[in-house]
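**Tokenised fold:**
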Amino acid sequence: MSQPSLEQISSQLDSENSKDRMLALASLRNIPAEEAVPLIKKVLKDENLQIRSMAVFALGIKPTADCYPILVNLLESDPDYGIRADAAGALGYLEDPRAFEPLSRAFYEDTDWLVRFSAAVSLGNLKDPRAHDLLIQALDSEEVVLHQAAISALGEIKDLSAVDSILRFAQAEDWLVRQRLAEALGNLPSPKSISALQYLEKDGHPNVAAAASIALKRLTEQGHEF
């Protein structure tokens, strides 16, 4: 099946049928960013929430100069928490260092946990060490998913100073938290990390044990032996 032309996609995005608009948006996958983004913008205010969500995500993987300000505006002002969370996630995909401030504000000020979760994950994608204080605070959140996001992000930014703070989750009830811990420790070479990973290798959940084994292997291959 041949790739539809930009004119065909643009016309399909104006269709009254939401399925047509969704298919048109999906067909932009292989279109260069500079040509795709003007078409994506056509459905950013679509009445169908799933289409809006797809469009916001698309801005994160089709970076142009227009994408950053659009996503920040959506993150800060869209009334739908799902769209705000999508915008936070897309900003992480852009990996634009300017996103540190709006993502931090979203984490501290947004009232919805899903937005705060997406902001924390994206701060990890930015790999900006300034996120340390925010992510350490997230470890004390009541939402377990925020523990997962913060632990992963601290690993992403290779924050060695956070090792003591995250090790308290080695016996967390949620196995996903323990898995995220094992994965993060693989980026945080220290004697305490090695010891914790050897402990997590014996975890009762196979995903946690496997993640710990992979992390230990990675540290060993990098020459980290303590």
User: Anything to note?
Assistant: DSSP finds 14 helices and no strands in the chain.
